[in-house]
Amino acid sequence: MQNTNVAYDSKVEGEIIVTQADAVINWIRKHSVWPMPMGLACCAIELMAVGASRFDISRFGMEVMRFSPRQADCMIVSGTVTYKMAEVIRRIYEQMAEPKWVVAMGACASTGGMYRSYATLQGVDRIIPVDVYVSGCPPRPEALLDAMIKLQDKIGRERSVKNLTARNAKPTKEGSLALAGAGKES
Ligand code: SF4
């Protein structure tokens, strides 16, 4: 059954729009993704291209790239993940506030690519959860944009209120559950 996210009744005085909390939260989140550009190798050049005028990632509200994990909610892993960098990637991911998402851009980030060697991690999903994979070596900027649109779709389907409650629910002394706060942790 198709869910209707917005109900509008012009006969209601004050022109009230009724909707679901999930729909509003997800709508805001998916149109204001702040990427953390984890550029590790050649794929990063294509990642830079999506920020330029020709591809213009700002059309999707994602142009605010942040190099501080405290200010980003989507890590775009673009390039070869060596074991030397794996620990750093994991640490930066853990420093990012919830909710957060990960895009594995290119063959190397997704599977290790052609580097089947002792120095290369065979896919970044071995250390952090990945939401969207992008194929290609390197993927075109359009492919990354397509992945970001898919990520938007995924964010749009999340049970945000339920997740928020589950994430912040902490047992009290009485044994009941209480919300420890709302929104992103800082
Ligand atoms: S997938 Fe290809 S272009 Fe991307 S980092 Fe690996 S070797 Fe470079």
Structure characterization notes:
By secondary structure, this protein is α/β, with parallel strands linked by helices. The chain has a domain at 33-157: Rossmann fold, CATH 3.40.50.12280. The protein is 34% helix and 16% strand. The chain is built from 6 helices and 8 strands. The chain has helices at 21-30, 43-51, 83-95, 106-111, 141-156, 160-168; strands spanning 6-8, 17-19, 35-39, 74-78, 101-105, 132-134, 169-171, 177-179. The strands form 3 sheets. The protein has a 4-stranded parallel beta sheet with strand order 3-4-5-6. Strands 1-2 form a two-stranded antiparallel sheet. It has a two-stranded antiparallel sheet with strand order 7-8. It is elongated. The relative contact order is 0.16. The model is unreliable at 171-186 (pLDDT under 50). It binds iron/sulfur cluster. The site of iron/sulfur cluster (SF4) has 11 residues, from helix 4.
Derived structural class: alpha/beta
- Percent of residues in helices comes to 25-40%
Identify the CATH architecture of one domain.
3-Layer(aba) Sandwich
Q: Which distinct ligands sit in these coordinates?
A: iron/sulfur cluster
